[in-house]
Amino acid sequence: MRIGFLNDKYLLGGREKVTCDMIRGMQSINPDIKFFIITALYKDYNLLGGAELVFLPKDIKMKKLEGMISVVNTIKKLCLDVLIIPIDPAPGLTPYIKNELPKLKLIIQYHSRPMWQVFNKTYNSFFRKLRERIFHTYTRRYLNRIKEECHYADAVTCLCDTFTQQVQRLIGNKYDALKVHTMYNPLDIPICAPINRKKEVIYVGRLSIPDKRVDRLMRIWQPIEAKHPDWRLKIIGIGEAEPFMRQQAKDMNLKNVEFCGYSSDPSVYYKSASILCLTSDYEGWPLVIAEGLACGILPIAMNCSPGINELLSDSRGILIPAGNEQKFSEELDRSISNGFVSSNPKDFLTKLSTERVCNNWIRLLYSINI
């Protein structure tokens, strides 16, 4: 079996990490599967997982015909049996691929909450928000995209049951709805006991503002540092918002904030820290929370998506009303001042194990008649 993952760019982030873990996990189950990562842009962060790297033209635009032709020619050259698309496909791409290659099995892998693009388009734009409120411009646009993708795909995967049900309702077509499956991101960090914890709060992830809202971290941390000067905030990750955050820390005269950069093994930080913070405006299924739970850390997160709600329900962590920075700071202070109970919810984490998730992927591949 020959499987390709189609990307416009393959750089550094949760999607690339998940792809790498999937490839490693499925190859351990079936070594005969050959994997390819197809991309126009790549940086070497050791996230190939044993797959062969195949380049598209650097200036490719998949929404244009010449870009679609290039993708199809690459698929033909590689003799792929399956193409997995873990990115937001360009409009018209999925029907073009299926029309040109009807025997190819096509899987759309949604890595965020359904219709996330509507929020992304209207964030911080009064006129776009107004247009959406009056004409539902972006809702209609991306609803049509979802319907197109699900119609031409042989299978569609979502990050949790709630997302799966949402996509099925959005499609409104019973036949296409049967193609939609829940497929968790694989968790490759072994469960460990929470011992020898340091007085550290950590953030792990991409440093960006529109979605991750890392600008909130410093405002939340400011009263914590004043009250608990023996605690530190460690920020693990890189991104376009880093210069802004460094300036924030300087302007607020914060002394106990450390920028640790990118880490290929964040478990080192999970195992020593006490609390994990996530301040996003929207998320899909943040793998950092599952990784933190496996290492016995206490996650505190904005309740901005059903994925986070599912991860932290049943007292697995602390959920903060979306956008409420004051409440976040209060709960963080309470957890530090009064102590907290961290746990390893083994039954919950077992269903996220790389072995189980990748076995589910193998079953899905054979269910679409590979």
Radius of gyration: 21 Å
Strand fraction band? 15-25%
Low-pLDDT sequence parts: none
Shape: globular
Helical region count? 16
Total strands = 13
Amount of helix? 40-55%
Biggest sheet layout: 7 strands, parallel
Helix-strand makeup class: alpha/beta
Report, as a whole number of angstroms, the end-to-end distance. Answer: 8 Å
Q: Any overview of this molecule?
A:
By secondary structure, the chain is α/β, with parallel strands linked by helices. It contains 16 helices and 13 strands. The strands form 2 sheets. Strands 3-2-1-4-5-6-7 form a 7-stranded parallel beta sheet, sandwiched between helices. It has a 6-stranded parallel beta sheet with strand order 10-9-8-11-12-13, with helices on both faces. Helix 13 links the parallel strand 12 and strand 13. The longest helix has 16 residues. It starts with a strand and ends with a helix. The mean pLDDT is 91.
